[in-house]
Design a protein that fits this description.
It is a single chain. By secondary structure, the chain is α/β, with parallel strands linked by helices. Helices cover 38% and strands 27% of the residues. Strands 1, 2, 3 and 4 form a 4-stranded mixed beta sheet that branches. β9 and β10 form a beta hairpin. The model has no long low-confidence stretch (mean pLDDT 87).
Length: 225
């Protein structure tokens, strides 16, 4: 069997798994979405009647083993009764942010163009950035969301590293002595060996919970022996 045919077989398997995952996700109507795969890159096509479906389809594809990336070409075609002016969507977005106690609404700006919401601003925590996007994602009339909010570290890398190490020590789910933490600016790199995937995930959760963290590179190896 040639390398080309092997790649084709793998892509075919990924395509089948993505289609199955789309059917599994209750938020998605799989008959509305087409899927192609080339060298592990999934392209989603078709049209849906809400941004939530477009976003959910992308999330479903990313959950599938072997997927290296997703090109989301799904078009959002809103039904007539869901059409809203950009001003109405912007007002609804601002109110949605105000209703979410996690979001520092005074630090976030909202702009809307042709139904596409763009979030700008600066927050201290990654979960605040994530919460802001989640708050506006489901608004009627939304065709898409661009989250350009930046997470600005307010502590030095050395202090950030210490905070994460202390969090790992407090956790009953992790063996802190087996995990190494390296902070490069606002990026956290985790290394070491743990006994379960749950422990690896818990370490990443601890890292994400530190102020100013914008990315976590989890290089921890799971060894069951």
């Amino acid at each position: 069997m040639t390398a080309t045919s092997t790649t084709t077989d793998i892509d075919g398997h990924i395509q089948s798994d993505v289609l199955a995952e789309l059917k599994w996700d209750a938020r998605v109507a799989p008959n509305e979405i087409g899927v192609t795969v080339k060298k592990g890159i999934v392209t989603l096509m078709g049209s849906v009647d809400s941004y939530v479906k477009r976003w959910a389809a992308e999330e479903a594809a990313l959950r599938v083993r072997g997927v290296r990336g997703v090109a989301n070409d799904i078009e959002v075609k809103l039904p007539g009764f869901d059409e809203r002016t950009d001003a109405d969507i912007a007002a609804a977005a601002v109110n949605a942010l105000k209703w979410d106690v996690i979001v520092p609404v005074d630090k976030i700006q909202v702009t809307v163009a042709k139904g596409w919401i763009t979030l700008n601003g600066e927050v201290e925590w990654q979960f605040q950035k994530t919460a802001a996007e989640r708050a506006v994602r489901n608004l009627t009339g939304t065709r898409g969301v661009s989250n350009l909010i930046t997470v600005a570290p307010r502590v030095k890398p050395s202090a950030l590293e210490k905070k994460i190490e202390e969090a790992l020590l407090r956790s009953v789910k992790t063996d802190a002595e087996r995990i190494q933490v390296d902070v490069q600016g606002s990026k956290v790199i985790l290394k070491g060996t743990v006994r379960s995937a749950a422990e690896k995930n818990e370490a990443a959760t601890a890292a994400w919970s530190a102020p100013g963290v914008t990315s976590v590179d989890n290089q921890i190896v799971v060894s069951y022996y």
